[in-house]
Automatic annotation (TrEMBL):
Domain Photolyase/cryptochrome alpha/beta: start-end pairs: 25-147
Keywords: Chromophore, FAD, Flavoprotein
Keyword Flavoprotein among record annotations: yes
Presence of the UniProt keyword Flavoprotein in the record: yes
Protein name: Deoxyribodipyrimidine photo-lyase
Domain of life according to the entry: Bacteria
InterPro entries named in the record: Crypto/Photolyase_FAD-like_sf, Crypto/Photolyase_N_sf, Cryptochr/Photolyase_FAD-bd, Cryptochrome/DNA_photolyase_1, DNA_photolyase_1_CS_C, DNA_photolyase_N, Rossmann-like_a/b/a_fold
Species of provenance: Paracoccus sediminis
Family affiliation: Belongs to the DNA photolyase family.
Length: 484
């Protein structure tokens, strides 16, 4: 491999004698929320570039803000290490601030380059570039293996889509690149020290015992592929309707946490699903359409990196939402007295997951019936979800709050009780999490911190009358619209 000119400024490349140039050059691949060997553009590039040090970084800031997601990432590391060892490599794990860790591992290993994937939000790699360059190497940031490259699916006039359905139609006409195979890896002449996959900061940051949540996780690249196969074998033409029923857990793929930590790529899912569709499997088109929401969210985040902090429609930053406080705390603890909301919030706390329909119901209740700022809810979901994804979480919270793109109009206020009657007619979901003798209610009681003093036999009165809450929201919306 010719020594790339751009490596010259840091003096002659560090070539280890006795190996050919490619093998002799050591490069680092930072597995940055892409915890797999399959369809991994940064790893494929690193493998072409030299002997690879596979590095995972456990960032304390990530653990503090997103403990469930951090723990979910930590669970992905042992299977990833096993996959690397099967290829004569291994996973080096370091805890700390990414820029500091990268510079240290470059210095420890004499690596000439670091390859990694785009982070979310997409901005902000300058500190990394400087730290890696300061240690004498070059940082290469590669696109994620999403369905389409960011900003590549545009309207006829070349602008970004602001509404999902036309985005979906344009994406559907776009050829989706084939997934990359897992590359052959050359081991470096020496391995830097590794901290191992344990992540005490993440466990300490958890608001509840991780072991309860871990029961609901199937970690690892192989497990994700198995889960995909199992789903494609059971999906039917009724997926679009079945995916709305929270008690029918098997109606959807359950792949969001594997996608969020990067154990499987969207492209791998797309191509396997297309093959299943060609074999006559029903429901695939609707499933691919849901998968495309994830790319739509990434495109929005790429165009507006602050949509997890400010309203995508700026005028909504003046909307009179209330701040955090006792009402928000009752919502977080599943103690609103509204069955579908409380069931969902308890599922979230006990398992790190929450059914999509229930996420919509619980989020709508917070921002409309309680008139509490959507960012309060977004932050709680970011702490508790094992499938936390910065782009998906931001887009969906803004969709529910009415301030995002293609948003559900604010005046369309979900009624949690009628939603329950419609989507959980036999109360299987609500009973699972609210009936004191049910397994879900017990899991929640086990997971909840002692300070919450959860008594499964509690009978809670609704904290707000649903009609009163709805009218209050509509009145506030009316005043807001007339404010000019
Ligand atoms: P399936 O129906 O099997 O769909 C397959 C994949 O498509 C999902 O894994 C997911 O990657 C994608 N997808 C499906 N629905 C959506 C959607 N509405 N938006 C974006 N992508 C979607 N999803 C996350 O992955 N992380 C989050 O942090 C997140 N926060 C949310 C917050 C709120 C308020 C709401 C209403 C939704 C949020 N979602 C989030 C979207 C959705 O709830 C989950 O993706 C879905 O429940 C995952 O279940 P599944 O994998 O079985 O989905």
């Amino acid at each position: 491999l010719a020594i790339r000119r751009d490596m010259k400024p840091f003096g002659p490349p560090r070539v280890n004698r006795g190996l050919n140039t490619r093998q002799a050059m050591t490069v680092i691949c930072w597995f940055r929320r892409v915890l797999r060997l399959d369809d991994h553009p940064a790893l494929a590039a690193a493998a072409k570039n030299g002997a690879v040090i596979a590095l995972a970084i456990l960032d304390p800031a990530d653990a503090a803000a997103h403990p469930a997601s951090a723990q979910r990432q930590a669970m992905a590391l042992p299977p990833l290490d096993a996959g690397l060892r099967a290829r004569g490599s291994r996973l080096i794990v370091r805890r700390g601030d990414p820029a500091t860790v990268l510079a240290q591992v470059v210095r420890d290993s004499g690596a000439v380059a670091v390859h990694t994937s785009q982070g979310l939000p997409f901005a902000g790699d300058d500190g990394l570039q400087a730290a890696v360059a300061g240690a004498g190497a070059v940082l290469h940031v590669h696109p994620l293996a999403d369905l389409v490259p960011r900003g590549s699916v545009l309207t006829g006039s070349g602008t970004r889509f602001k509404v999902f359905t036309p985005f979906w139609r344009a994406l559907r006409r776009t050829p989706i690149a084939e997934p990359l195979p897992a590359p052959r890896l050359t081991a470096p002449p020496a391995w830097p020290a590794s901290d191992g996959p344990d992540w005490p900061e993440a466990r300490r940051a958890m608001d509840r015992g991780w072991d309860v949540v871990a029961r609901h996780v199937r970690a690892g690249e192989d497990a994700a592929l198995d889960q995909l196969e199992a789903f494609l074998n059971r999906i039917t033409a009724r997926y679009a309707e079945g995916r709305n029923r929270p008690a029918d857990d098997d109606a959807t793929s359950g792949l969001s946490d594997a996608l969020a930590v990067g154990e499987i790529s969207a492209r791998r899912i797309w191509h396997r699903a297309m093959a299943a569709q060609q074999d006559g499997q029903g429901g695939i088109e609707d499933f691919l359409r849901e998968l495309a929401w994830r790319d739509f969210a990434r495109d929005l985040f790429h165009a507006s990196p602050n949509i997890d902090r400010t309203c995508w429609r700026p005028e909504w930053n003046d909307f009179p939402w209330r701040g955090d406080g006792p009402d928000a705390e009752a919502w977080r603890r599943g103690r609103t007295g509204i069955a579908m909301v409380d069931a969902g919030m308890r599922e979230l706390f006990a398992t790190g997951r929450m059914h999509n329909r229930v996420r919509m119901i619980a989020a709508s209740f917070l921002v409309k019936h309680l008139m509490i700022d959507w960012r309060v809810g977004l932050d709680w979901f970011a702490r508790c979800l094992t499938d936390w994804d910065a782009a998906n979480n931001a887009m969906n919270w803004q969709w529910v709050a009415g301030c995002g793109p293609d948003a559900s109009p604010f005046f369309r206020v979900f009624n949690p009780d009628t939603q329950g009657t419609k989507f959980d007619a036999r109360r299987r979901y609500r009973d699972l999490w609210l009936d004191p003798d049910a397994v879900g209610a017990q899991e929640f009681a086990d997971a909840a911190p002692r300070s919450w003093r959860v008594d499964p036999h509690d009978r809670l009165a609704p904290m707000v009358d649903l009609d009163t809450g709805r009218q209050r929201a509509l009145d506030a919306y009316g005043r807001f619209k007339r404010r000019d």
